[in-house]
Design brief:
Blueprint (H helix, E strand, L loop, with lengths): L18 H8 L6 H12 L6 H8 L4 H19 L2 E11 L25 H14 L3 E6 L7 H12 L2 E2 L2 E2 L2 E5 L5 H9 L5 E6 L3 H7 L9 H5 L1 H7 L5 E5 L6 H19 L5 E3 L19 H14 L4 E4 L5 H8 L5 E3 L8 H4 L19 H10 L3 E3 L3 H4 L4 H7 L2 H22 L3 H17 L4 H16 L7
Parallel strand pairs: 1-2, 1-10, 1-11, 2-5, 5-6, 6-7, 7-8, 8-9, 9-10
Antiparallel strand pairs: 3-4
Helix pairs in contact: 1-11, 2-3, 2-4, 3-11, 3-12, 4-12, 5-6, 6-7, 11-12, 15-19, 18-19, 18-20
Bound molecules: S-adenosylmethionine and iron/sulfur cluster.
Iron/sulfur cluster binds next to loops.
Length: 474
């Protein structure tokens, strides 16, 4: 079929981003400490915050108050997610693009980028390599181009699910691509996608217009803003939102993300499954003049405020960031990171050790292999998880929101983290990671009450280690 959808937002689509109102909230003066503490107390009840309440946290200046926000984020991360950090990898499938986003190496006016689209055999080869490393969860990434219509995306997803490498298999394929229409979303849902991610890049209308030239598809702000809501209405009830931090004021865009999350909940019945907050990275031929660099301290603030504002939404931090920044950010509420990522098309089988900017959308800050990332997580006291159970058990969208009550998460997520981790340790880990991981599993088991749930879990772990059983999820 190879066609891109007409730029026709769904019925009732509204542009709910009121720049003036949001700026008004952010310029109401330095936040009153009592008000900040009131908002933090509400968040500790696990209640999502309003846009105005989030603005109060973004107006806090006093380092003591900022630390209280960070503390609350740490506490919420621990309560909702425990020590678990879910691991995934990106798989770039095609970098042709009809858009001309000023910040992106794939923009159509960049003559120096090496353009490539993986064919089915090449996608399978990448999947085999990722499975050999131990990955179970991918996000497939596409430029926007008629070649990458919904059918092409669905075919890619089907090919990946169909590619097995011994015990290795990809069990969840998320998608990061341009917005689709209803028929397109239904098609990719039928192929079994996990999350459909669409980053709005910046919610600031003026910056958006400046960075996405008139006449390009991406210049249509409402089509993109309405994209995740249309996805939910068409049955893709697991959606991911994101902002590319560095394009406009970080406080404004943090509020934009919260406004978008609330809009989805209120108008489409389901909040976002994940939020992403990449920072602008060097990319081929990209001029950083006029951009709004976000410091490490500001990024930590963004993460902490998001954790507090939307306690049940997953937060994704990618390898755009350096290992040091990722280490620091984990405590504030990040729940998913990638490991062993390569951005070059075909990079998991063909790339040399060094990154090649002319083959990438942007350069990465953390290129460590998955095993090293997993081992470091263990050493730091986190629990690496390769779990993909929820959407496969139908716990998505509204249902997932109900399950996202701490008791339910513990019932499913903790044992699934252990079963999926032991699979990784047995099948893929280096000896050092295996030793560290198995010790951690024992420690987790020792903390559990000696009841039937524990003995059942112990038996599953034994079957994985001794009988070659796999995919024993709850
Ligand atoms: N082409 C689709 C789109 O724009 O929605 C799909 C994904 S695009 C390949 C993935 C994301 O990469 C973009 O949404 C943008 O946020 C991010 N990105 C683009 N240029 C970047 C850069 N220089 N540094 C960091 N992230 C960048
Ligand atoms: Fe194309 Fe996406 Fe890059 Fe924009 S961000 S140029 S749409 S690949």
């Amino acid at each position: 079929m190879t066609r891109l959808p007409d730029l026709q937002p769904g019925p009732g689509a509204v542009d709910f981003i009121d720049d003036a109102a949001m700026r008004g909230l952010l310029s109401a003066g330095i936040a009153d400490p009592a008000q900040v503490r009131e908002v933090l107390a509400k968040s500790l009840e696990l209640a999502p915050l309003t846009v105005a309440e989030t603005a109060v946290l973004l107006r806090a200046e006093d380092p003591v108050l900022v630390e209280e926000i960070h503390e609350t984020a740490r506490a919420l991360k621990q309560r909702v997610y425990g020590d678990r950090i879910v691991l995934f990898a990106p798989l770039y499938v095609g970098n042709d693009c009809v858009n001309d986003c000023a910040y992106c190496g794939f923009r159509r006016s960049n003559p120096d980028i090496v353009r490539r689209t993986l064919d089915e055999g090449e996608v399978r080869a990448q999947a085999l390599a990722l499975e050999a490393a131990g990955h179970k969860r991918l996000v497939v990434v596409f430029g926007e181009h008629p070649r990458y219509d919904a059918e092409a995306i669905a075919a890619t997803v089907r090919a990946i699910y169909d590619t097995h490498n011994g015990h290795g298999e990809i069990r969840r394929v998320n998608v990061n691509a341009a917005p689709l229409d209803d028929a397109g979303y239904r098609l990719v849902k039928e192929a079994g996608i996990g999350t459909y991610q669409i980053f709005h890049e910046t919610y600031d209308h003026a910056a958006y217009a400046r960075l996405h030239p008139q006449g390009t598809r991406k210049a249509d702000y409402l089509w993109r803003l309405d994209g995740p809501g249309r996805a939910i209405d068409a049955g893709c009830d697991d959606v991911g939102l994101g902002v590319l931090f560095g394009l406009a004021d970080w406080r404004f865009d943090t509020l934009g993300l919260v406004a978008h999350a609330r809009h989805l909940q209120e108008r489409h019945g389901v909040g976002p499954h994940t939020l992403s907050f990449p920072r602008l990275r060097p990319a081929q031929g990209v001029d950083f003049g006029g951009m709004h660099p976000v410091s490490d301290a500001e990024l930590m603030r963004v993460i902490a405020v998001l954790r507090v504002a939307v306690p049940y939404t997953g937060l994704i931090l990618t390898a755009r960031e350096t290992a040091a920044v990722r280490r620091a950010a984990l405590d504030f509420g990040v729940s998913q990171i990638d490991g062993g990522s390569r951005l070059e098309l075909g990079g998991y089988t063909e790339a040399p050790a060094a990154q090649a900017i002319e083959r990438e959308q942007f350069t990465l800050g953390d290129t460590r292999p998955l095993d090293e990332v997993a081992r470091e997580l263990l050493e730091m006291g986190h629990l690496p998880s390769f779990c993909t159970a929820c959407y496969r058990m139908g716990r998505t969208g509204e249902v997932f929101m109900e399950y996202a009550i701490p008791g339910f998460i513990e019932k499913f997520c903790s044992p699934n983290a252990l079963t999926s981790l032991v699979e990784y340790l047995v099948d893929h880990a280096s000896p050092a990671t295996r030793v560290a991981g198995l010790a951690r599993v024992e420690k987790e088991l020792a903390l559990m009450d000696d009841d039937t749930r524990k003995s059942e879990l112990v038996e599953r772990l034994r079957r994985i280690r001794e009988d070659g059983a796999r995919d024993l999820h709850y």
